[in-house]
Every structure is written in structure tokens, then in C-alpha cells.
Design brief:
The protein is an alpha+beta fold and 389 residues long. 37% of the residues lie in helices and 18% in strands.
Length: 389
């Protein structure tokens, strides 16, 4: 038997029946439809964390960068950073401030993702992040008067500092074999990396290990002394040795120093190549640098290097062992200085008491190091001895 095929008249009749059924519904019963927009009340801490989102603090892009990626969809969602610089550079929907900020954050995020497994690939991204942050903070080589209410500038200082520090640590890896000049290629052009001056070069190779001071938490010292400014503070360490006479008086566990690294970016040349100068500053002797004919304060952390030195020197352990006639390998007694000898400073000799060690003076030593006036006036010297003798 052949099935019946609906005619046009039959289909129209069915459609009219459906429409009539819908129209017959009571007017007071609307079809359910929720708004596309919703509002959720948050506690203050969660709200503040979301407001201050950024790749350093939360691992997420800031509100500003997310907005820029929405305005410039051709830049991608931030996952493919290689195509983002060109797309952001060509867009007329954002201004130069937004462009530099988003490039810096996107590049820093890419560098952090690559740094652990592929540090060589991460280096150019760190340079881009520092360069774009520097363009925002120092347009035409001069520091701007930052709007304290514009979060982008506050974040840009952190992006610049972290990118400078991470790049320096990657540059000092043994496999890089950096000798004073290196060509780095990036999506925004080539960078030629050199040292700022001979002092920076000497410091880089005098110390054998560096870590960013931000990355350590300190216990046992009541205060942490530092200074806000250009660059990122480092803990620089040199292993014990006898290369020169003064090393006999340096801490037995190794010499530490508060250094800060930052980078200067020259304007790109006609070929798009940018010269980058990596600088290292010993913050015990210098608190400002000249940048664009201006004096700019240099960031510092005076407590973290001292705390690291106390830990690796193990003087308390040595003093306790000596009380029972024992010795601890890698420790020693006698005169210890923890900074280059300066004949213009007043020697301040600290001598501990019975069953004690140089750690008995840890709070005072830290307070002296944290005061610019006292740090510049006194040469701190610790004298340790086995108290059973």
C-alpha cells in the first residue's frame, strides 16, 4: 500500500493549528527567558583579587589585556603570542599605551610558560616584555609622571622588573656562554644584548649564583628592609674560595651581596635592531642611576641577601657544637666581614657571649644594613669563637 503524501493544503492547515494553539495561551504566562547578564556579589578579598588580576599575581591576564584582546580579535586569545604583536601593532582600535601594556603582559606570560622547559626560547619574550614595559614607563627615554590611579603603570613596573630579572638569570646559565654580546631575535625585531659597563660585567662573573629576592620568604628577622625603584633585587652568591686575600675574612658559607639588575633599551635603528644594555648595581653603594638625564631610584632588598648568608654560614650550629668540643665542617671561627672593606667607614665589631654565635646580633645587623645612614657610616665586623676556650 502506497503511503499518503501530505499535500500543501494539509501542511498549511497543521501550521495554522500550531499558531492558533500558541495564541490561545493565557496572556499572563510569558515564555521563560533569562537575561544574558547577571551580577554576583563577592566578598571583598575575592573582588580585589579579580580586580588586580595579572600574569604575575594570579596567572591570568589583567582586565586591561583581556579587554584589548576582545577589541582586537585578530590578535588571538593570548595563547598564540607569536601573532599578537603584529596584530596589536596594526590595530587602530587601541592607543599606544594599551598596545605597549598588552604586548608586555602577553610576552611575559609566554616567557613564563617556556622558561622551565625551553629557557632559550623564553629569553626573547622576556626582552619584549621588558622593552614594551620600558616604552610605557620611559617614553622617549624619560620617566613619566605616573598616574597613581592607573593600574596599568603599576603593573608595568612589575612586568619590567620581573622580565629583567628572569632574562638576566637565563643569560647567566652556563650553557648560554654569554661573553658580553648576544643577538636575540623576536617577533618585534632583533635585540643586541651587551653589558651596561665594566662594573656590571665584573659583578656578573664574580658571583656564581643569583636568585630573585622576591622569591624568598624570611623568618627569624623582625624587619625586611628594601627600597622601591628601577629593576629587580637579586641575591648574589659567591662560593668560599681563596682567590684573593680578603676571602679569608668573608663568611665561611660563601659571600652574598644585594645586587639589582635592570635593562636599558636604545631606540631601534633603521633595521629595527634594538641595543639592550644589562646593568648590575651593588645597592649598598648606589641608590640612584641616571636614565634619560634623570636620577631614578634603584630597587633594593638588603635583608634577603643577609638572611641567605646567615643560613649558609651556619654559625649558630658551629657555636653549639663547639660548646661540646665538636666542629662543623664548612664553618670557621674568627673575624668575618660581609662587605668589601671601606677605610672611610667606622669599624663596628660585634662579639657574642657564652654558648652563642654571630646570630646573636642578627636583628641589629639587619637593622644597620637597612638604614642608609648607618650602612654608609659603619663597617660591620663579626668576631666568633668557641666559647669553651
Amino acid at each position: 500500500m502506497t503511503p499518503a503524501v501530505p499535500t500543501t493544503t494539509g501542511l498549511a492547515a497543521r501550521l495554522l493549528c500550531v499558531i492558533a494553539s500558541v495564541l490561545a495561551l493565557p496572556a499572563c504566562v510569558p515564555l521563560p527567558a533569562r537575561s544574558y547578564v547577571d551580577v554576583e556579589r563577592l566578598d571583598l578579598r575575592t573582588a580585589y583579587l579579580e580586580y588586580t588580576d595579572n600574569v604575575i599575581g594570579s596567572g591570568r591576564y589583567s582586565q586591561s589585556t583581556r579587554q584589548i584582546l576582545h577589541l582586537v580579535p585578530e590578535a588571538g586569545d593570548g595563547g598564540d603570542v607569536a601573532r599578537a604583536p603584529a596584530a596589536l601593532g596594526a590595530s587602530t582600535r587601541i592607543d599606544d599605551t594599551e598596545r605597549a601594556f598588552s604586548r608586555a603582559e602577553l610576552a611575559l606570560a609566554a616567557a613564563e610558560r617556556l622558561n622551565a622547559a625551553e629557557p632559550a626560547r623564553a629569553r626573547p619574550y622576556y626582552l619584549v616584555a621588558a622593552d614594551q614595559s620600558a616604552q610605557l614607563l620611559f617614553p622617549r627615554g624619560r620617566a613619566i609622571r605616573i598616574d597613581p590611579f592607573d593600574q596599568r603603570y603599576r603593573l608595568a613596573t612589575a612586568f619590567y622588573a620581573l622580565a629583567s630579572g628572569r632574562y638576566f638569570l637565563a643569560l647567566m646559565r652556563p650553557e648560554v656562554g654569554y661573553t658580553g654580546e648576544l643577538l636575540e631575535r623576536s617577533a618585534l625585531g632583533d635585540f643586541t644584548v651587551t653589558f651596561e659597563n665594566d662594573d656590571s660585567s665584573l659583578s656578573a662573573y664574580f658571583f656564581e649564583d643569583f636568585e630573585i629576592a622576591w622569591g624568598v620568604r624570611i623568618e627569624g628577622l623582625r624587619n625586611r628592609y628594601g627600597r622601591d625603584g628601577l629593576g629587580v633585587p637579586l641575591i648574589a652568591r659567591r662560593a668560599p674560595g681563596n682567590a684573593f686575600p680578603l676571602e679569608a675574612y668573608l663568611p665561611a658559607g660563601g659571600y652574598t651581596a644585594p645586587l639589582t639588575t635592570y635593562m636599558r633599551f636604545d631606540p631601534p635603528d633603521a633595521d629595527g635592531n634594538t641595543r639592550v644594555r644589562v646593568a648590575l648595581v651593588d645597592t649598598r653603594g648606589g641608590d640612584h642611576v641616571c636614565l634619560g638625564r634623570q636620577r631614578v631610584p634603584v630597587a633594593a632588598d638588603f635583608t634577603a641577601p643577609y638572611a641567605r648568608q646567615v643560613v649558609q654560614d651556619r654559625s649558630r650550629e658551629a657555636g653549639r657544637a663547639a660548646l661540646f668540643g665538636q666542629r662543623v665542617d664548612g664553618t670557621r671561627f674568627g673575624v668575618t666581614i660581609s662587605a668589601p672593606w671601606d677605610p672611610d667607614k667606622i669599624p663596628l665589631v660585634m662579639v657574642h657571649g657564652l654558648a652563642s654565635s654571630a646570630e646573636a646580633w642578627r636583628q641589629l645587623t639587619n637593622d644597620l644594613l637597612g638604614s642608609e645612614e648607618l650602612r654608609n657610616r659603619y663597617q660591620i665586623i663579626h668576631y666568633t669563637y668557641p666559647t669553651t676556650e
